[in-house]
Amino acid sequence: MPDPSRISTPSAGLARLSARLDQFAGRLENRLIRAVPRDVMEVPSEEPIVSFTFDDVPASALEAGAAILEANGARGTYYIAAGLEGRIEPGRTLIDRAGCRELAARGHELGCHSFAHHDLRHVDGTTLAEDLARNGDYLDTIDPRPSRRNFAYPYNSGSLGKRALLARTFRSCRAGGEGINRGPTDPAFLQAVEIRQPQQHVLGLARWIDALVADPGWLIFFTHDVSPQPTAHGCTPPSFHLLVAYALARGCQVLTVDAALDRMGLREGRP
Ligand SMILES: [Zn+2]
After folding, report:
1. Which of 63, 106, 118, 233 could form a disulfide with 224 if both were Cys (CB 3.0 to 4.6 A apart)?
2. 3-state secondary structure of 16
């Protein structure tokens, strides 16, 4: 008799197909956004700049990640989705308000990752504006700041229809894309390289730093948990330490996203 858990029902098959089609549509939309930038700014080529960023954010990114950055005299950018506050998930516990306060007090940057962490393609403009304001209020009670924050797209998924709102609301918006920001760059769709498992992949990421040093620009890394037993989208403390130390040893400026924008003299996006 077949194992009932192995039997694929028509509805399960349809759900998988629908998810695959949605992923494809998402990749296509990201490519369109890159092909037709909204704002273009120039990333200087004089010096290699590296930013280490964290999404969601798991508590281990504070406990281990922030400590490693600080030990190297650097700071990171933490894109917080307040709707995930304190949530316990397999392999990770999300940061709470006290954790965010700790990060800010230690000189790290708190960025926005939306409140509800939905794929922006599936949220209407009014709902998104409310969601972003709600997350902004949460962050402002912890770390008030006079200027606009930086943002990271949930699932690195951009949305053509929301570009104007995002560019108005944030100083920059970070996606994925596995690339280095060089020369003409859309600050509302910055590229980034993921630090994720397997371990072999993390160790290979030093090549991105080599490529940056050879042809300077702005390399933004992103990850999630920094834990001895990382999730698929995190890394171990020693491997994170290795990357930070390597970037510094190769002469890179290691800066938060906000500090990198200041250093590059990039203007803020259109008001
Ligand atoms: Zn996320």
Report:
1. 233
2. helix
